[in-house]
Design a protein that fits this description.
The complex is a heterodimer of chains A (about 400) and B (about 130). Chain A has about 400 residues and is of the alpha+beta class. Chain A is built from 11 helices and 13 strands. Chain A is about 50% helix and about 20% strand. In chain B, about 40% of the residues lie in helices and about 20% in strands. The chains are: A alpha+beta (about 400), B alpha/beta (about 130).
């Protein structure tokens, strides 16, 4: 091929023509992915791009001069010419049929979803409308898919929620039944214990006649074990109340030292029997605002344990110190101590340390678990320091809460 | 001699309480249900009632309610007796109009103190203690 080839001259001329502004706009129009149509006031298509041919399935020749309504689904054609009239009254750029699901119709009669934007174009005093038509089939598909997924998801969620609600109801009911069972069990066990303990006490008092030494001892055993049984029932009831969150504190301002005295008095007999010295070294002379019965229970559990695990001739000491915010109470014993690997477990429910003094294990293993819960309900904490063979010190800290002002 | 009415549906409990109270020097009458308790109160006008809360026919609360409506028994000492040990039972009983509350099993010393506190307050000892 040479430069003198006439074809090349034609190409050069075409290149010059193509660089004209109109040609550039023409290319812009043809490159647009949306169908762009210009319609005159009669509704005839006067201009269109390649995308319009592709989207509607007509050739350019077929579309030019034909009525735009052939692209509108048959069912909507009647309304369309009216809409064209009303657009002429307010000609400005706006989307067509806002909020409506618009459809286009292909040459083969098939319908597809479209989005149309309208712009007025005045040509020699006559209103033409430029319609930019976007085929939104793909987008609709995605939207439908999302909608279906969302509906499925919502339905699943609703079903799950219903299941959960039903499950909650079941749990609530089971919990209520458990509480009712515990309440009635406690009542049924206490009723005979009332007379077992009562009659044993009457017999120990020997008011109905003297008992010989053996009989006294036997009645003593009945009384001791019946009281133990009562303690176990109370502990099981307590832990169940604590775990279901039904144990509420009844705070009151009371004399803490007197409270320690009373608890020690209750344990004195056991201590004397083992020749264990009980000492009260507490020095808190302000009223403590807490649940007195529960504080007594905490002290009782700790001191009682201390006596239980201290060999004959030892000592158990209750001490206290306080600062502005806390009361620190320690129960120290000269007992057998707790192995280091057991120290973290002793506050667990049902954990029992073997009692080498008497052999075997006694109780429910709930005492310290309850004690810890009761201390924590007061906002305090409990810990233990122990050296096996030398003794243990249980430390309880109560926050000093201000009693509400009384009227 | 002061008369104490024991209302409890358990015969063994009635016998226990009767034994302890008679030994304390009180006259004792008893009833096995709420209806009988009300009849005995009206017939015998006791000085104090030990009223079990769980009884057939009329329970302790119903008996208390009926008695407290009658001005003649508005201030009669009535002690609630119950083997139920639920939190708030004591408060509920005292709020309903009971004069005292004893949980079963009742320590005999506690029973004696409570009755003495209500019938013979001058000689009653300090009854605070561990229950």
């Amino acid at each position: 091929m040479t430069a003198r080839n006439p074809d090349l001259n034609v190409q050069a001329t075409a290149a010059r023509q193509e660089s004209s502004l109109e040609s550039r706009f023409h290319k812009l129009l043809e490159a647009a992915p949306d169908a762009i149509l210009e319609v005159n006031s009669e509704g005839q298509i006067t201009l269109l791009n390649e995308a319009a041919e592709r989207i509607f399935g007509y050739s350019r020749g077929e579309l030019l001069g034909s009525n735009v309504e052939s692209l509108v689904p048959a069912a909507m054609r009647g309304g369309h010419s009216q809409h064209r009239g009303s657009y002429a009254d307010h000609p400005k750029t706006r989307p067509m049929g806002t909020g409506l699901e618009l459809q286009g119709q292909r040459k083969d009669g098939s319908l597809f979803p479209v989005e149309i934007s309208l712009s007025p174009n005045w040509i020699e005093g006559s209103l033409h409308v430029i319609a930019s038509v976007r085929d939104i089939t793909e987008r609709k598909l995605v939207e439908d898919r999302i909608r279906i997924l969302r509906e499925q998801y919502t339905a699943e969620l609703t079903a799950k929620n219903e299941q959960l609600e039903a499950r909650n109801l079941e749990v609530e009911q089971a919990n209520r039944l458990k509480n009712e069972f515990l309440a009635s069990m406690s009542h049924e066990l206490r009723t005979p214990l009332h007379t077992i303990i009562g009659f044993s006490e009457v017999l120990t008092e020997q008011l109905e006649g003297p008992l010989n030494e053996k009989q006294q001892r036997f009645v003593g055993h009945i009384l001791h074990d019946a009281r133990h049984l009562l303690e176990l029932i109370n502990e099981v009831l307590d832990i169940s109340k604590i775990e279901s969150g039904r144990l509420e504190l009844k705070r009151d301002a009371f004399d803490f030292n007197k409270c320690v005295e009373q608890v020690l008095a209750g344990i004195l007999q056991q201590a004397v029997a083992k020749n264990i010295k009980l000492e009260n070294k507490t020095s808190f002379h302000q009223p403590l605002y807490a649940d007195q019965l529960r504080v007594k229970e905490i002290l009782y559990n700790l001191i009682n344990n201390a006596v239980k695990f201290t060999p004959e001739g030892g000592s158990v000491r209750v001490e206290s110190s306080h600062d502005r915010n806390f009361l620190h109470v320690s129960v120290c014993d000269t007992g057998i101590g707790i192995r280091e690997d057991e120290q973290s477990s002793i506050f667990d429910k049902f954990y029992q340390v073997e009692d080498p003094l008497r052999g075997g294990r006694e109780g429910t293993g709930l005492g310290l678990a309850i004690t810890k819960h009761l201390v924590e309900l007061h906002g305090g904490n409990i810990s233990v320091v122990s050296r096996p063979g030398h003794g243990s010190t249980f430390k309880v800290t109560f926050p000093l809460v201000q009693a509400p002002a009384t009227l | 001699m002061k008369l104490i009415l024991i209302a409890d549906d358990k015969a063994t409990s009635r016998e226990l309480l009767r034994t302890v109270l008679e030994r304390q020097g009180y006259a004792v009458s008893d009833a096995a249900d709420g209806k009988e308790a009300l009849e005995k109160v009206r017939a015998e006008t006791p000085d104090l009632i030990l009223l079990d809360l769980q009884m057939p026919i009329r329970n302790g609360y119903e008996v208390l309610g009926e008695l407290r409506e009658d001005p003649a028994y508005a201030t009669l000492p009535i002690i609630a007796l119950t083997a139920s040990a639920m939190q708030g039972d004591r408060e509920k009983a005292l709020a309903a109009g009971f004069t005292g509350y004893l949980a079963k099993p009742v320590a005999l010393s506690h029973l004696r103190e409570e009755i003495q506190r209500l019938l013979d307050p001058k000689n009653a000892a300090d009854s605070s203690g561990i229950t």
